[in-house]
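Regression test case RT-17, inverse folding.

Input:
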């Protein structure tokens, strides 16, 4: 199917390809011509190249020119692509409904085991991100890695895992070497491990991060003798300023079901150590050591600031208890109520129902008494009659949404905008663990 599509596009663009080749041929034969003529021929090449570069057919056109090898037209087309706005165009976004589910994964904290955590960071690139795609049918030799279905430039989850592990190893701390227990807990066993007791899955689960802008980087290796570049090498990248969402899930699945104070203490200790290591590793990976290709040359760094990051952990640091009804009785009640569900004796019958007074009976009342009676009447219509019916029906408890609503559990959550605040978040969480959790 791919080859049929390629042949069809080649036939459609055959005339335009020939016109572009003729323009390139004229440009190559400008020896002895004046500058005005040369500029005119350059503009003609740009005009002929534009329709060939628009859309996805530019890759087909380039390989067609490579196969024909006429007047180095393929190099000229690639140069036109590198200098055009097409190479810097924003990445195409698919349909928003399905794309939001893929690019912004939702993690429901209440469905996770205790002590599970989610790191979220809205990243902006400070240096371009480089990677190598498996697509060999491209206009340049080094395309950025793209998702196969939607064609979005992205950092694969496996790449994040390797970069974070490498960043932790680069820290000047012996406890983050590959043979340490904390590294096996986070990332799983080392490749090639054969000992059964050392084989395990890691507690970290990474998600893809998609970038919203692409660009080109150019490397021009120089000849040692002439000290001049011969052929520029184009590298497609996620350019500086590109934005993406980083999501990392931590699940201590191997501690589930363990009971007893000693096991609970061990779980809390491991979770604190793990989250502190992840926080240090993220800061080192994103701001110092980088991620992706050519990190030793300074590529693959994120801006430290305006991160819009958050850390959420499945623990309740402040125990939430159901409020008893007596608490409502202790609150200051309106003067027309004896209890939260009963009017004062003057405004109700013995069974607690509202007592209607005639105008003659209220003739001797003062104005404040009449106003208080009207408030009692309004309360009875609003909620008193319903409560009275519940009591008559034999209800022994009041409706929870009226008298005592049970609050939703509040998980530990912390927001940060710079990486130093992330370290403080993990420190606050460890302090909360030491203080006791529910």
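Golden output:
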């Amino acid at each position: 199917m791919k080859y049929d599509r390629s042949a069809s596009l080649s036939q459609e663009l055959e005339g335009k390809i020939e016109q572009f080749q003729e323009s390139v041929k004229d440009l190559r034969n400008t020896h002895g011509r004046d500058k005005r003529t040369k500029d005119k021929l350059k503009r003609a090449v740009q005009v002929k190249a534009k329709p060939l570069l628009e859309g996805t057919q530019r890759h087909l056109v380039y390989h067609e020119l490579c196969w024909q090898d006429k007047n180095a037209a393929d190099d000229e087309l690639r140069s036109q692509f590198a200098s055009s706005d097409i190479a810097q165009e924003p990445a195409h976004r698919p349909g928003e409904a399905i794309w939001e589910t893929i690019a912004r994964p939702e993690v429901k904290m209440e469905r996770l085991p205790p002590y599970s955590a989610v790191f979220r960071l809205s990243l902006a690139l400070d240096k371009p991100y480089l990677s190598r795609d498996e697509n060999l049918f491209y206009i340049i030799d080094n395309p950025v890695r793209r998702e196969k279905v939607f064609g979005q430039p992205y950092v694969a989850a496996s790449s994040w895992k390797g970069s974070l592990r490498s960043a932790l190893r680069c820290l000047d701390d012996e406890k983050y070497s590959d043979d340490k227990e904390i590294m096996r807990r986070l990332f799983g066993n080392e490749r090639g491990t054969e000992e059964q007791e050392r084989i395990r899955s890691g507690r970290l689960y990474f998600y893809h991060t998609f970038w919203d802008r692409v660009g080109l980087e150019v490397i021009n290796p120089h000849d040692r003798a002439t000290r001049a570049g011969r052929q520029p090498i184009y590298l497609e990248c996620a350019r500086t300023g590109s934005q993406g969402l980083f999501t990392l899930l931590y699940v201590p699945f191997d501690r589930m079901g363990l009971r007893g104070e000693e096991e609970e203490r061990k779980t809390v200790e491991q979770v604190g150590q793990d989250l502190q290591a992840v926080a240090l590793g993220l800061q080192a990976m994103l701001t110092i050591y980088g991620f992706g290709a050519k990190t030793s040359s300074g590529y693959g760094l994120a801006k430290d600031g305006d991160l819009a990051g958050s850390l959420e952990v499945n623990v309740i640091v402040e125990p939430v208890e159901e409020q008893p009804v007596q608490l409502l009785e202790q609150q200051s009640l309106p003067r027309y109520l004896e209890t939260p569900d009963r009017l004062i004796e003057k405004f109700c019958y013995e069974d607690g129902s509202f007592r209607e007074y005639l105008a003659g009976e209220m003739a001797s009342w003062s104005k404040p008494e009449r106003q208080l009676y009207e408030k009692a009447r309004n309360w009875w219509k609003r909620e008193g009659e319903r409560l009275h019916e519940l009591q008559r029906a034999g209800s022994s408890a009041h409706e929870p949404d009226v008298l005592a609503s049970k609050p939703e559990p509040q998980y530990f959550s912390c927001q940060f905008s710079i990486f130093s605040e992330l370290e403080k978040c993990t420190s606050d969480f460890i302090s909360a663990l030491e203080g006791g959790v529910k």
